[in-house]
Design goal:
By secondary structure, the protein is α+β, with helices and mostly antiparallel strands. The protein folds into three domains: 3-30 and 517-612, Rossmann fold (3-Layer(aba) Sandwich); 56-89 and 125-257 and 448-498, Bira Bifunctional Protein, Domain 2 (BirA Bifunctional Protein, domain 2, 2-Layer Sandwich), CATH 3.30.930.10; 277-426, YbaK/aminoacyl-tRNA synthetase-associated domain (YbaK protein), CATH 3.90.960.10. The chain is built from 16 helices and 32 strands. Strands 4, 8, 9, 10, 11, 12, 13, 22 and 25 form a nine-stranded mixed sheet that branches. Strands 1-29-28-30-31-32 form a six-stranded mixed sheet, sandwiched between helices. α2 crosses α12 and α3 packs antiparallel against α6.
């Protein structure tokens, strides 16, 4: 079939027929030197992608076909959820960020370009600002809402260390959608559309043939309140997922709650284990090194991190206005990590790590701070994780550079302020780990898995509409800020995540829905007229059944063809050889099968392949 015929066939719902010798599939036995993840190795070796620069890749014909299939599934589900497609510019005037200041939040991740007239633009990492500006200039009344818009477009982020091929690169393909509302609840409200998008995302990744987990998540630099991530389960995933095996609760590390933890004897009430003794600990950069030097295990040390509040969670201004503490310190066990999102929730303040110069000027010996620093001060809010509030032996910083103390005791060292809830709070402020109590099922323990984020949905609220002046008149002719939602899917990342999940030692194993072709017809003798005739007839039958076909017509040894077939991962291979043809058949082998193929009748091959695709 010609290219024009193939295009017409696809539009008519028929499969396409392509020939290996007429397209570009540069398979190779060697992976790029910097390739470490399975998807980077296999997509490169199988001729799907080719590195052009750091974090920048060519998408070759096989990749384009898979990307188009993923995108089509996304489009169908977005349309079904009531969204309309548009396309926004990739190059955004920097002035768009003047009200939201997200150019500051993104920092070096934001690509910036300067034109010949000196005007600065950003290459869009996401499109909250331009979509808000568009809707602001296009609607005036609540009667025009709700409204959901989406695009599939290339995005840009200047990753400091691009790695893992398409999983963390600087240019990538993404679907981003945005919804606009006058209410949260009720018909047409944010919650209704958010739930519709949640269902649509489940449909997208199910249709793509992926095993995935939906987890509660933090919103990150996008902002907003509720959010969920859609994670492809893969042992090679860079994100940790924590799950409750009883309730089904799942969350990422940044968001995962921890169930109730009892402090034996009551918080801060443990008896002293000895006299407070100071130890000189010079030139030791971390908890582990200090612990070894002091002969103290990290789980018996207290780690104290100093934060500065920058904005109340309710948006009422910063600490400089005198409306809250000047400093927030978070205390966890030495073998645990402070969770900034939980510090924000527990304190009621958006926080940042305290600038070292300012913190030192305020009396904090950064790296050696102890909870004792709060004694006698009213400008500090101290948050203490329950695991750090119990009795027994403790070591901590000494509030003096290059020094720590042994036998720290909460009641003796800190005193009565521990009982004043204005200054001291017991709260879940650390990252959850495997074995922690489940927050949803008494007696259950959290388990961990690995995943790759491929989708993220957010309830943005009025963060962007307030900043950029997007409002409408309601039914009482009162001006109302528009409420927004944001919904993203990494299209190119989904392709890579599928490979991370679906591969073996021989190559990729594509789910049928997003495979570049459904069937690979392998000619053992491409110069034999009978073989060619059988291949053409078989391909035509397959295309008529709606299956996409690639005919391997190369003049190569059978071993090379079979290795390449496994490498590129097309779901079914039909091999045309003398022995099978003599029996009036063709050898059928599913890519997922590890055994030998079987001979099926030529007239039955198309139905057998359709059945293998789930059709």
């Amino acid at each position: 079939m010609s290219n024009l015929q193939n295009e017409r066939a696809e539009r008519a719902g028929r499969g396409v027929i392509h020939r290996w010798g007429s397209t570009l599939i540069p398979t190779t036995r060697e992976a790029p030197a910097d390739a470490e993840s399975p998807s980077h190795i296999l997509l490169s070796r199988a001729g799907f992608i080719r590195k052009l620069g750091s974090g920048i890749y060519d998408y070759l014909p096989l990749a384009c076909r898979t990307l188009r299939k993923v995108s089509q599934i996304v489009r169908e589900e977005m349309d079904a959820a009531g969204a309309s497609e548009l396309l926004l510019p990739a190059m955004l005037p920097i002035e768009l960020y003047k009200d939201t200041r997200r150019d500051v939040d993104y920092g070096d991740l934001l690509f910036k370009v300067t034109d010949r007239k000196g005007a600065v633009s950003a290459l869009g990492p996401t499109h909250e600002e331009p979509i808000t500006e568009l809707v602001k200039g296009s609607i005036q009344s609540y009667k025009q809402l709700p409204l959901s818009l989406y695009q599939v477009q290339t995005k840009y982020r200047d990753e400091a260390r691009p790695r893992s091929g398409l999983l963390r690169c600087r240019e990538f393909i993404m679907k981003d959608a945005y919804s606009f509302h006058v209410s949260v609840e009720g018909a047409g409200g944010l919650n209704e559309v958010y739930d519709a998008m949640y269902r649509a995302y489940n449909n997208v990744f199910t249709r793509c043939g992926l095993d995935f987990t939906v987890v509660e998540a933090e919103s990150g630099p996008i902002g907003g309140s509720a959010s969920h991530e859609f994670m492809v389960n893969a042992a090679s995933g860079e994100d940790t997922i924590l799950k409750c095996p009883v309730s089904g609760y799942a969350a990422n590390v940044e968001k995962c709650e921890i169930g109730e933890r009892m402090v034996e004897g009551g918080a801060f009430n443990g008896a002293a284990t000895g006299e407070l003794s100071e130890v000189h600990t010079p030139g030791l950069p971390g908890i582990d090194e200090v612990g070894k030097f002091m002969k103290v295990k990290p789980d018996r040390m207290l780690k104290t991190i100093v934060f500065r509040p920058v904005e109340s969670v309710g948006g009422s201004g910063g600490a400089a206005a005198g409306s809250g503490p000047k400093w927030i310190i978070a205390v966890v066990r030495g073998d645990h990590d402070v969770n900034e999102g939980k510090v924000k929730t527990a304190s009621g303040w958006k926080v940042e790590l305290a600038p070292e110069k300012d913190a030192r000027a305020a009396g904090f010996a950064i790296g050696y701070v102890s909870p004792k620093i709060i004694a006698g001060r009213t400008d500090i809010l101290m948050l203490v994780d329950p695991d750090a509030a119990g009795g027994g032996f403790w070591a901590s910083g000494a509030d003096k550079a290059d020094h720590h103390v042994k036998h720290f005791n909460w009641r003796r060292e800190v005193g009565a302020i521990l009982d004043d809830s204005r200054y001291v709070k017991l709260a879940d402020i650390r990252n959850a780990i495997e074995g922690d109590p489940s927050p949803r099922a008494a007696g259950a323990k959290l388990t961990t898995g690995r995943g790759i984020e491929v989708g993220h949905i957010f309830k943005l609220g009025t963060k962007y509409s307030d900043a950029m002046g997007l409002s409408v008149l309601d039914d009482k002719q009162q001006k109302r800020s528009v409420i927004m939602g944001c919904y993203g899917i990494g299209v190119s990342r989904t392709m890579a995540a599928s490979v991370e999940q679906n591969h073996d030692e021989n190559g990729i194993i594509w789910p049928a829905a997003i495979a570049p072709y459904h069937v690979l017809v392998t000619l053992m003798k491409p110069d034999d007229a009978a073989h060619v005739q059988a291949a053409n007839k078989l391909a035509a039958d397959l295309a008529a059944a709606g299956l996409d076909v690639l005919i391997d017509d190369r003049d190569e040894r059978p071993g090379v063809k079979f290795k390449d077939a496994d490498l590129i991962g097309i779901p079914v291979r039909l091999t045309i050889g003398d022995k099978a043809l003599a029996e009036g058949g063709v050898e059928f082998k599913a890519r997922r099968d590890t055994g030998k193929g079987e001979v099926v009748k030529l007239g039955e091959a198309a139905d057998r392949c359709a059945a293998a695709m789930g059709g």
